[in-house]
Write a structure and sequence with these properties.
Elements lengths: L3 H17 L1 H38 L6 H14 L25 E2 L2 H6 L7 E5 L2 E6 L4 E7 L1
Antiparallel strand pairs: 1-2, 2-3, 3-4
Length: 146
Amino acid sequence: MKHPARFNVLVTGAARSLKENPMKQAASILAVALLIGGVSSASAIDSAASKQTVGATTSSSLNLTQDQKKTLWSDINSSSPMKQKTPESFNAVVGASLPSSITSNPLPGKAATDVPSAKPYNYVMMESKLLLVDPADKKIVEVIIQ
């Protein structure tokens, strides 16, 4: 700063003005409190909005029709009839992450062609369930029960 003395005079003058006039002092304190409160509220709103967005992303499903589900089941079951055993503590629901003991695979070509919206996902066959899984984060996006 080029003129520290000038700045000091301005600050000192403002402080003296506040001491001499209690109404200005009260108004200044109120303005600062409102400013801090407004920033805190905006921050809380942003934080809540980001949590809702994250939640919506991780729990979204494909919303496949019954015909699409039957087609996927048939296509995948005919090309890969081997089913993995469900671990005891694992609950296969949309939004759950796959345990490391379960291996997912890319969709077979026929299934990806027959149901294009499922193409980006991997699958897992487990006993009576077909799981579609996001390969990036290993989260289940669809559970098809046969």
